[in-house]
Structures are given as structure tokens and as C-alpha cells.
Amino acid sequence: MCTLERRGRVLILTLTGSGEHRLGPDMISSLRSALATARSDPTAGALVVTNEGRFFCNGFDLAWTGKSKAKLMTLVSLAKPVIADLVSLPMPTIAAVTGHVAAAGVMLALAHDYVYMRGDRGVFYCSELDVGLPFPPYFMVLMRSKLTKPGTLRDLALGAKKINAIEGKERGLVDKVFESASDVLPEAVKMAEQLTARNWNGGVYASIRMSMYPDLCRSVGLPQESDEEVEKHFVSRL
């Protein structure tokens, strides 16, 4: 499923094995357990999420659903807290992508603060239109929140376009592109170490991140503070 290791104050969550890392109940449970461990670590300064094999994440485990709508909706519901966990995590997050990213996997990658990707292989691909499935509402809110360059959301959602890392950087899907898979994780860890060295307050970091994406927070069930609560927290930290 996945592992969590430390390198100094940087945590590295790896989707392990040579499979497609599809999001079924077991994978989602493993992810949430690792993210809970990261959240509870008071000395962690940043999180890097990466993958083994040819896929970062190839979406929901449709084989597990057996074409059952009820089981598919179960996966949609189970994956929502994963996005909430990442959006509310009290530290910077970097997706170090060394394989293909499809469907729900696109959402997993976009939920990070930064996306690093290999340039020689791998694409972002929202396959929903091709397989005849609508987007869950929180998927669309996440994409609207993160994809701000004109045409990118249209081409992914309404064109089912496969976008490689180089084009992804131009379109705002990817922050940095590297020549090969072997370069991605070391560079992501280096960036994570630089961010960790800033010694930011994790609670403040998460609060600012969540305030950037209020619609996304509402869509994944994160509690919304009133203006009075925000002001109170602001004053308490001065």
C-alpha cells in the first residue's frame, strides 16, 4: 500500500509496489493512516508523497466496484477525507510524481501544494468522459480551485486530454519538471528541506492554505471559521 519514512524533518510517503496504486478501500485506509501519523508528528516540517512503478495513481479501483454504483459511491465518499487531510495538513506538501496520473489520481496530486514530475514519461489524464462517469462535485471544486489558466480545466474535463509534464508546467498543473524519475524525489526532498528550514508554524500554514480555498474546504467537509473566529485566532497569534 504505502510507507512513511523520515529524512530529518521531512516525511516521505511512498505508494509502494509496481501496480497502478488505484484508490480502493485498503489503499485509502493506508493513505489516511500515514497522513494521520504525519499530522501527529510535532517535529515534521514537510511531507513528500511519491510512487514506485509506472503509476502515481490510476484513479479509483473500478475492479473492486464490480460495476456497482453503490460501491463506486463508497469510494467517492472514502476518498473525500484524503483530500481534506492534505488540504488541512499542518505542513507544506509536495507530490513527487514519477508515473501516470489519472482520474481520482489527478485529484490526489492536485491536493498538494507543489507538484514535481518527470519529463520523460507520464501524463495527467482525466478519464471520466472516456469511461462514461461524471465527476464527483468535490473533484470539480478541487480542479476549479487549483487550475487557473484558461483552457486547462476544459481540456482535462471536457476533452479528456492527456497532458505530459512539460505541457503541464505551461498549464499550471506541474510546478517543476525533471529529466528522469531518479531526479524527482531528491529534488522534492531538497525543496521540502528548504521549506522546513523556514520553521513556520504548522497551524498557521494550514490556516492560510485553507483560507485560500474556501470552496474546496466546504466541499470536502472541513469546518469553516466565522469572521469572528478568524479574527480571534489572528489576534491570538500576534
From TrEMBL:
Q: Which GO terms describe its biological process?
A: fatty acid beta-oxidation
Q: Which organism is it from?
A: Rhynchospora breviuscula
What CDD domains does the annotation carry? Answer: crotonase-like (cd06558)
Q: What is its EC number?
A: 5.3.3.8
* Pathway(s) where this gene product acts: Lipid metabolism; fatty acid beta-oxidation
What InterPro entries does the record point to? ClpP/crotonase-like_dom_sf (IPR029045), Enoyl-CoA_hydra/iso (IPR001753)
Q: Name one GO molecular function term.
A: delta(3)-delta(2)-enoyl-CoA isomerase activity
**What name appears for this protein in its UniProt entry?**
Delta(3)-Delta(2)-enoyl-CoA isomerase
